[in-house]
Amino acid sequence: MPTALTLDNFLPYRLSYTSNLVSDVVAHSYDALFGLKIPEWRMIAVVAEHDGVTQQQISARTRMDKVTVSRAAIALAERGLLDRKPNPADKRSHMLVLTDAGQSLYAEVAPRAQALEKALFAEFDPEDMALFVATLRRIDAAALAMEETHGRPTKVDR
């Protein structure tokens, strides 16, 4: 019989739990202050970092599924924060850009996001944080390499 799995000691679970816990804290703050859900904020941040980006590129960059990205794009467009422009490279997709209102919102949210990050990790030494971020990037690389070798799991496999 295989060794029992203790979920709380299973690293993929710990990563997911901690990520969800941090996201919940951030989500409450963004919703209370700006009426933004986490996918909407992530989309605004990615669009702000690029001069036009497709929904597919956002999905790849954030690892959010296509439906989540699509819903966030619709919600942000309805609020006048995001605009869809023709994509000269692919007529089937659109380039997403922030409107003036979207840029103003980003300019207001970004410093608060940085302050929230600073407060959350205030008790950690800068050297520990640098090592932690480097470790996360190594985990990312290992997971991406595994995904490339074995393929991305389907929803049924997850």
- Roughly how many Å apart are the termini? 24 Å
How many E strands?
2
The largest pleated sheet is described as:
2 strands, antiparallel
Task: Supply the CATH architecture of the largest domain.
Answer: Orthogonal Bundle
- Briefly note the CATH topology name of the largest domain: Arc Repressor Mutant, subunit A
Give the overall shape, derived from the CA principal axes.
globular
Helix content: 55-70%
N-to-C order of helices and strands: HHHHEEHH
What are the low-pLDDT stretches, counting only 5+ consecutive residues below 50? none
Question: Could you walk me through the main structural features you see in this protein, from its secondary elements to its overall organization?
Answer:
With 158 residues, the chain is mainly alpha-helical. The protein folds into two domains: 7-122, Orthogonal Bundle (Arc Repressor Mutant, subunit A); 124-158. It is built from six helices and two strands, in the order H-H-H-H-E-E-H-H. The chain has helices at residues 11-34, 38-49, 55-62, 66-78, 100-120, 126-150; strands at 82-86, 94-98. Strands 1-2 form a two-stranded antiparallel ribbon. The longest helix has 25 residues, at 126-150. It is globular and about 55 Å long. It starts with 10 loop residues before the first helix and ends in an 8-residue tail after the last helix.
